[in-house]
Sequence to fold (576 residues):
Amino acid sequence: MEQITIKDVEHLADLSALEFSKEEKKEFVDDLNNILKMVNQIQEADDGGNFVYNRSHKLSELREDKIKTSMPQEKILENAPKKRNGCFNVPLVVE
Amino acid sequence: MELKNKTAIEILDIIKTKKASCREVVSYYLSNIEKYKHKNAILEVFANEALSKAEEIDKKIKAGEKLPQLAGLPIIIKANLLYEGHIASCASKFLEKYKSQYTSTAVQKLLEAGVIILGTANMDEFAMGGSTENSAFGPCLNGLDDSRVPGGSSGGSAVAVACNMCPVALGSDTGGSIRQPSSFNGLVGIKPTYGRVSRFGLVAFASSTDQISPISKTIEDNALILSVIAGGDCNDETSLDKPVPSYIKEIKPSIKGMKIALLKETVRLMEKTPYQGVYQNISDWFKKQGAEIIEISIPEYSLGLPVYYVLSSAEATSNLGRFDGVKYTKRSDRAKSIGDVYKMSRTDFFGKEVKRRIMLGNFVLSSGYFDAYYMKAKKIQSLLKTKLQNAFKKCDCIMMPTTFGEAFKIGEKSKDVVSLYIEDMFTIVPSITGLPALTVPCGKGVSGLPLGLQLIGNELEESTIYTIGKYFMKNKEASHE
Fold:
């Protein structure tokens, strides 16, 4: 299996919306390579060839399609780091 | 009234028969929370609220009112369970100030049954870890030995029960997060069948294996709490729509004729530890008690570990996508643009292990690797499920250790990530196959700390593993002491 490189870590950081310092990136290269060494056992394994979504029990009934009052707007915004006029406030999105 | 080491059932009786007031009971547990503060097991204590609720219950008892089943029972909940108006920090800086906007179904059911919530328990951040060292609010110490980890991720919940801060606690188990800390603190913990307990209001880590469940000193306490929190829920599509038995009533007095299987592969894994003999003795003892011991083999058992880390990280990546600096209390001060808001908030407020899982999750889901990792893991998961279904045609229970040994030292495994992941070897397969698994204490290791026996049951056969666990604790463990 190929090894994870700094470039891969940078790509994954981008996908993850995370930033890392140079040292952290190096650490991640080692960490991910060590984890993948363990994970790569599955590559050689015989997997039986199929993915069956097997669940033997019935799921809970779906909710009735009834109109209910939802959580009030103020309550939804309670945990917003920034809010304005009853909305979540974020920096400019479209120029 | 001596309240030390009382079980939940005993506490309920003490309150009901007025041997102590509910206020006295709550005060006793609150004093232990204070006494064991150095364990760092509790993140927030709701002392005044708990005391005033206790007084209300005392008034009702005095007036002779009929009270619900668990009236006055003090409990502590893991900090990833929503309880309206209270902080559910998940031991993360990100949610340090996050106040639950609603109450999780499991907690709601307990509240309706009359429990008093004393506080929230420390944990590995977002339940990712097996030592409660990954908490943004500092590591939690083992309930029995300050130099050792309590296990994780429900470490705080287990220590709370071990140190008599409450008679029972709620935790969550994704790959062993109830069973391993229960084992490390000499307690009883169950991971029920997937779907048995609603996950509504549990902050999601890996949705396909997350389950909420109790940690207790006895099987009866565990069974009592599970009976209350289990059941289908229209707010959780994955919850099972099956009647919930009274597990206590279903516990049988005998294990005669029951078929208990030893798994060849886990026996072999234990040969490298000093404890293979301990588990051999237990299976010999079960045989003498009239159970039938059979040997089975599932060569793929150890593949559960990599399969779990692929699937749980992939799910965690998606679940933690919601933490974006917009909705959940924290936004990085450095952020200027919308892109900054996402990136910088996540960078500033997620801990290292959480970042590691997100990165791993994105790796296994990313283009070019999806089939080789994620789909491959899903296929092996299916295979393991089929193999276990077949195994349960021949037996009622599979027994194995809960962990490789006693609780390890704080810091011992924190440098080598993979060594910590390997700790989950025994607990993971029931998680990824959805099967119920129970841990009960089974003697002591070389340092005098508890070992755990894991009993895995067939789907929805919680009563069977409770029966075997109860029989074991009553007859084998008791005879030692």
